[in-house]
Amino acid sequence: MRSYRERKFIVKPSIPVFTAAMLAFAAGGCGSSPHETAIEPWEALLDDLRNAWEEEDLSLMGSLFREDFQHHLLEVDWDDYDGDGIIDEYWGLEYELEFAGMIFASSDSISFLISGDSACPWSGDSTGVTMALNRLIDLKVFSAQGNTEESMDALFLCRPDDEGDWYIWRWYDLESYL
Ligand SMILES: [Ca+2]
Hints:
Helices cover about 25% and strands about 30% of the residues. The chain is an alpha+beta fold.
């Protein structure tokens, strides 16, 4: 796997991917539920995503996704990650874990903050079971070789699998600020 992520930490403006922006628009207008006391399954997933990153726990991270998981990248990050000669606009579970493992291997500690509380049924799923969550992610990686920071708007789509267990189905990078 190439060391692609360094490019992602480079400070430069980026243009949101059109389709992802449309998805964000479709997910707009969602309300939060400030009066809910029990944590919703999709919120628990994002809490665990944070824990997996900060505790550098690939096992936990792997439990948050399924085989059909897709992480859609900003256009500046599109590349031929699997070497088949075709530019990849997203990657799946295997590359998500490989990417995280690469970051973990080179870091002393990681801060992975997720902010935002919107959640609503995703308009792309007529059954209404898939939840759309817009979040701001602040990722800081500390290492002896230097620290890196990334701030990213992202859209997560969460849904239950055949067993009824919730998982992160899609992750869309929408806009990078650092
Ligand atoms: Ca490819």
